[in-house]
Amino acid sequence: MLLSKPKLIRGGVRTDARKHPTSGCPIEPVPLPPRLYVSLAQHIGAPALPQVAVGDSVAQGQLIGAPDAGISAAVHAPTSGTVIAIDHHPAPHPSGLPVQSVVIAPDGHKRWDPNLPKPLTGPVPQLDRETIAERVAAAGIVGMGGAAFPSALKLSTDGSVNTLILNGGECEPYLTCDDRLMRERAAGIIDGARLMAHALGAERIAIGIEDNKPEAIFAMQRAAESLGGGAEVLPVPSLWPQGSEKHLIYSLTGHEVPAGALAADIGLVVHNVGTAYAVHRAIRHGIPLISRPVTVGGGAVREPQNFEAPIGTPFSYLIEQAGGLHCEPARILAGGPMMGQVVPIEAALAKGTNGVIALTAAEIREPAGLPCIRCGRCVEACPMGLMPFEIANRAAADDLDGAAEQGLGDCLSCGSCAYVCPSSRPLVQLFHYARGRRADNAAAKQRAELQKRLAEQRQERQRLAAEAKKRAAAERRKRRAAQKQKEESET
Amino acid sequence: MYAAMLVLTLMAIALGWLLAIAHHYLKGEPDAIEEEVNRALPGTNCGQCGYPGCAAGASMVAAGELPLDFCPPGGRALAEELARITGRPLTYGAQCCGPRLIAKVVDEELCSGCLKCIKVCPTDAIVGAPNQIHGVLPEACSGCTACIDVCPTATLKMVPESVTLANWRWPRPNEVLDHAT
After folding, report:
1. How many separate domains does chain B show?
2. Residue B116 and residue B82 in one domain
3. Structural domain contains residue B42
């Protein structure tokens, strides 16, 4: 099913990768910050439910947020210390809205929780498949490439998955933490991948790495060989958005994921390399997801670096550890410059944050307020084969159904169109706006239906109550009449 | 006198019979647009539009005497739906943009647990028991303000729905195209 030579994806853009400032920087542990702000809503799905109270002392790796029903993920204490507040703290999200967070004052002892699960040893095929998925869920592992979807849900399938694909694309400019992870901890990643493939019942593992990371490809190939094969490392062309799940699948297998379908529907599951490493740590060392590699970079940062930082470390602290800022940044992003989100600097590291990028004014392009000149460059660049200018025009005219007809639902928001637009129109923002309006309308419709149903039920209840009252009154009258008659006949 | 009574009775019977026949054979088609509008409306008969119920509002909209955004609980989504049904151009008034207003017990200490609001809520959006603090389920609240008027301690107030990560939306980007117009 895998191709011998990766296919070139449709469209895409060759970005200026700007990875050199950090690609030579090993992943260094970051000193503990004075406060950790561990969000309970850092994954897709329902926020975790707090399991600690203010004043509690917590151990490193202790469960502080239990997963809610449905899609959710566990949250653990990144270090030992005291819970000083369970409060609202700005989320690493463009809205900067506050989310419920556990604020921990570290004590510096890094005292491990004695109740952590025992590491599972032994060769991968001898481990129980269910146990792996359970351990991954208990460790609170979510997709570490940015989406933060609970990983255990992508491990418990019915055995219809035949190939596990590891995403080592890292095609976002500036970011190098996955590159460094693959170079430094390749054996762990391969072991994690084999654990996940075993849990899924997948026969093959394919690891796609962009060909601008030759050291990572070499390290991963060597690790895959020394661990006894079963995993293929495949270089893919360096092209944005090669690291998109659908595009990586197309490159490696030649198959397209149908619109509206999931990769699992065609027998594939894609996980990020960082996720594989987190799985390795959770199973082999019993360590939940309490820290992650993150690139701190961008033109405004004095000494860009790769850190292994505890979850909940404030971005301002990370930037400080990277030498601070040498000028006022034009914007601070969580993630890379293509798809990263503008975030407040007070927000804290989440499980899905792979980069903290402070960009100078020279590195960004503000919308110029110029009109579309119909040059068609966005159409050429769109990796999904859409016509971005058509979608954007409809979104700007509030023609939401028209935008959906033009494929708004298939758009990845990868930003290739905006990258090439000579008028620098805010194309992706228009897509976000149209999506938000559609979501609002859907929510309003659902609410209206709920209220209609409630109103009808209430009216029905009142009608029944009135009828019952009438019937009771009639019966009373009848009884009284009967009694009267009886009395009359007696007299 | 009896003759007059007889004539009038006969006339009444004859005319009534004629009317019944006319009603049967000359029945007009029900207004399709009005019915569709009525189906689209929330159906809670909250009275916020100033008409006694959704059916009355629907007939006024179908007749073109009410603007399309006349229904506050329906908001912008409903206004767009009505524009589609009636084929009239949509102009937004002040009430259908911005956050939705919902009822909320703003000061729990003031709530006496009198059940008055629960009795008037058309969508059963308020929960509570006698002498216990009541609460409003935001999703079920249509914003009709019926409860506000009956609250004896004035602790039920209309407040904008709180913005969370789940209902936050991207704003519309500014595309300055002044020179084009």
Report:
1. 2
2. no
3. yes
**Is residue B143 within 8 angstroms of chain A, CB to CB?**
no
Q: Which domain holds residue B123?
A: 101-160
Are A456 and B43 within 8 A, CB to CB? yes
Task: Check CB contact of B155 with chain A, cutoff 8 Å.
Answer: no
| CATH for B47 | 1.10.15.40
Residues B105, B140: one domain?
yes
For A169, residues 6+ apart whose C-beta sits below 8 A from its C-beta are A208, A209, A210, A236, A242, A243, A248
In whole angstroms, what is the distance from residue B77 CA to residue B96 CA?
Answer: 9
Whether residues B122 and A94 touch (CB distance < 8 A) is answered with no
Buried b (16+ CB within 10 A) or exposed e, A227-258: beebbbbbbbbbbbbbbbbbbbbbbbbebebe
Question: Do B106 and B71 share a domain, yes or no?
Answer: no
Of the candidates B22, B51, B86, which is a domain's last residue? B86
Q: What is the pTM of this model?
A: 0.87
Peptide bond into A241 cis (omega under 30): yes
* CB within 8 Å: B173 and A367: yes
**Tens-of-pLDDT digits for all 491 residues of chain A?**
688 888 899 999 999 989 999 999 999 999 999 999 999 999 998 999 999 999 999 999 999 999 998 899 999 999 999 999 999 999 999 998 999 999 999 999 999 999 999 999 888 888 898 899 999 999 999 999 888 999 998 887 677 888 999 999 999 999 999 999 999 999 999 999 999 999 998 989 999 999 999 999 999 999 999 887 678 999 999 999 999 999 999 999 999 999 888 888 899 999 999 999 999 999 999 999 999 999 999 999 999 999 999 999 999 999 999 999 999 999 999 999 999 999 999 999 999 999 999 999 999 888 777 889 999 999 999 999 999 999 999 999 888 999 999 999 999 999 999 999 999 899 999 999 999 999 988 988 898 889 889 988 998 999 999 999 999 999 999 999 999 998 888 87
C-alpha A157/C-alpha A163 separation (Å) is: 12
Assign residue B116 the CATH number of its domain.
3.30.70.20
B8 found inside a domain: no
As for the ipTM of the complex, it is 0.81
Question: CA-to-CA distance for B46 and B72, rounded, in angstroms?
Answer: 10
Residue B25 located in a structural domain? no
**Topology of domain A20-27+121-297, CATH:** Rossmann fold (3.40.50)
Q: Where are the domains of chain A?
A: 20-27+121-297, 372-491
Q: How many CB pairs under 8 A join A and B?
A: 93
Q: How far B22 CA sits from the closest chain A CA (Å)?
A: 33
Which residue's structure tokens are 């002044």? B178
Tokens of A235: 């270089």
Q: B105 and B60 share a domain?
A: no
Please indicate if any CB of chain B lies within 8 Å of the CB of A97. yes
The verdict on B49 and B82 lying in the same domain is yes
Instruction: Give, as one character, the DSSP assignment of residue B180.
Output: G
The CATH number of the structural domain formed by A372-491 is 1.10.1060
Residue B6 and residue B172: Cα distance in Å, rounded? Answer: 76
Show the tokens assigned to B37. Answer: 């509008």
* Residue B13 domain-assigned (yes or no): no
